[in-house]
Specification:
InterPro entries: 4Fe4S_Fe-S-bd, 4Fe4S_Fe_S_CS. This protein is mainly α. It has one domain. The protein has five helices and no strands. It has helices spanning 16-25, 31-35, 45-53, 59-67, 84-99. The longest helix is centred in the last third of the chain and has 16 residues, at 84-99. Bound molecules: iron/sulfur cluster (2 copies). The site of one iron/sulfur cluster has 13 residues, from α5.
Length: 102
C-alpha cells in the first residue's frame, strides 16, 4: 500500500552546467519559440536565455515558464540540437526556488 504513495524524485533532463552550456551555444534563431504551443505573449530569445540562468525573472518570462508543459515541440526545430524544454525546466526550478525564498 505504502508503495502507491512513494514519492519518486523528479528527474531533470539536464544538469545546470549542461543548461548553461546549451544556452551559450544558442544562436538565437527563435525556431524553438515559433514551434511552442504555449507561448502566449512575445518574449525575445535573449531575454529568455538570460533569465533562465541568472538575475531576476520578469513577469512575462515567469508566466511562460509556468505555462510550459514540457511537450518537447521546441526541440526538433532547433538547428543546433539544443533542448529548450530542458532550459524551461530549469526556469521552473528557478521560479520554485524564488517562491520558497531560496
Ligand atoms: S516544452 Fe515548453 S517551451 Fe517547449 S514547446 Fe513545449 S511548452 Fe513550449
Ligand atoms: S531553436 Fe535552438 S538555437 Fe534557435 S533560439 Fe531556440 S534554442 Fe536557440
Amino acid at each position: 500500500m505504502s508503495k502507491l504513495f512513494k514519492q519518486e524524485p523528479v528527474l531533470l533532463h539536464k544538469t545546470g552546467p549542461q543548461v548553461i552550456q546549451e544556452i551559450n551555444a544558442c544562436i538565437g534563431c527563435n525556431e524553438c519559440l515559433l514551434a511552442c504551443p504555449a507561448l502566449a505573449e512575445p518574449i525575445t530569445i535573449d531575454r529568455l536565455n538570460h533569465e533562465t540562468i541568472a538575475g531576476s525573472i520578469s513577469p512575462a518570462v515567469a508566466r511562460f515558464a509556468r505555462t510550459c508543459y514540457q511537450c518537447g515541440a521546441c526541440v526538433s526545430p532547433c538547428p543546433v540540437g539544443l533542448h529548450r524544454d530542458a532550459m524551461m525546466m530549469w526556469l521552473k526550478v528557478r521560479l520554485i526556488r524564488d517562491d520558497w525564498g531560496g
